[in-house]
Amino acid sequence: MFAGIAALAAQVGEGAASSTAISAGTLAVVYVLRAIGDADARLEEDRLRLLRAVRFAARFGMRIEPATEAAIARHAGELRGVSRERVGHEIRRMLAHDSRAQAIAMIERLGLAPTTLLEQGSGHATPLVAALPAASSTTSALCAWMLDRGDAL
After folding, report:
1. Taking CA 54 as the corner, what is the angle to CA 112 and CA 33, rounded to the nearest 5 degrees?
2. What is the CA radius of gyration of the chain?
3. Where does the pLDDT of residue 123 fall: very low under 50, low under 70, confident under 90, or very high at 90 and above?
4. Torsion-angle region of residue 2: left (phi > 0), alpha (psi -120 to 50) or beta?
């Protein structure tokens, strides 16, 4: 599905994973992250792909194709079966990047927060995370996320 950055870049470079949008008289390319083949099957092969899709989309300014996004939401509960170490590694990589607010917003919107954080509820707004300076630490980003969720109170 998301074999690596090189494979992803090759698809984007060839235009297979991009579309063109016209807005206010300007031409913009919108990059789309999508599963190869059946999204459900790809996510069942490796459940960590649920988070990798979010990390790649946020980091590279892509949107997730609707069918792939729906599959991620359907499989969100299955993230509990992935080792906490692997989940934590993906979350730390997301929180360490400037695109952390976009990644967290996607995690919340897709219903991945409860299984990622082992907490209830999802869909929380994340204004504190969005307001963090780009150079903020992973720890600061995680604390801001917990405050935004009301979990730290």
Report:
1. 130
2. 16
3. low
4. beta
